[in-house]
Every structure is written in structure tokens, then in C-alpha cells.
Amino acid sequence: MIRVVLPQHLRTLAQVSKEVELQVEGSMTLGSVLDALEIQYPMLRGTIRDHITKQRRPFIRFFACGEDWSLESPDIPLPDAVLTGKEPFRIVGAMAGG
Description:
The chain has a 5-stranded mixed beta sheet with strand order 2-1-5-3-4, with helices on one face. The protein has one domain: Beta-grasp domain (Ubiquitin-like (UB roll), Roll), CATH 3.10.20. About 20% of the residues lie in helices and about 20% in strands. The chain is of the alpha+beta class. It has 3 helices and 5 strands, in the order βαβαββαβ. The model has no long low-confidence stretch (mean pLDDT about 95). It has helices at about 10-15, 30-40, 80-85; strands at about 1-5, 20, 60-65, 65-70, 90-95.
């Protein structure tokens, strides 16, 4: 079971608490976790990744074990601490300003 922490705007959209648990089938990669999240919460489709290209949306960041995974390949396996549920996979709404 993988734990995923969502930012407030996505929690509100999905009508969930701060953290959700996902059962991921097959390989445990960044992409497979995002696929499982979109399957379990279809209202999040298109908010985290583009519908067609599956590219990360601007102002959305991914973190695993305190490290930024936003620019990693979707085929990269997640760290063991995330796979075992010890650490959550975090999706963060980035901020911009000037």
C-alpha cells in the first residue's frame, strides 16, 4: 500500500483527507502511482498530468523521501521507504510569485 499526500486544492477536488492509500498493480514506479491515483480518483485526471502527454502540469511537484522527483522519468522505481509505506509520496502545489 502506497501512501500519497495531496495538496489542499486536490484534496478538496477528490473529497479526501490529507493522505490517501493506493494499491498499485505491477511495477511500483512514479508513473504507475500516478496512474493508480487517477484510476481511484478520476476527478483528478488532468489536474496533475496532461490527459494526452502524461507530462506533469506546471506548478505541481513530486517528492519522495524528502527529494524532488518532479523531473524524473515516469518509469523510475520509487524508493523502498515509499513502497513499504514508511514514507509517503507527496504531491505538492508549487508557488510562484514575484
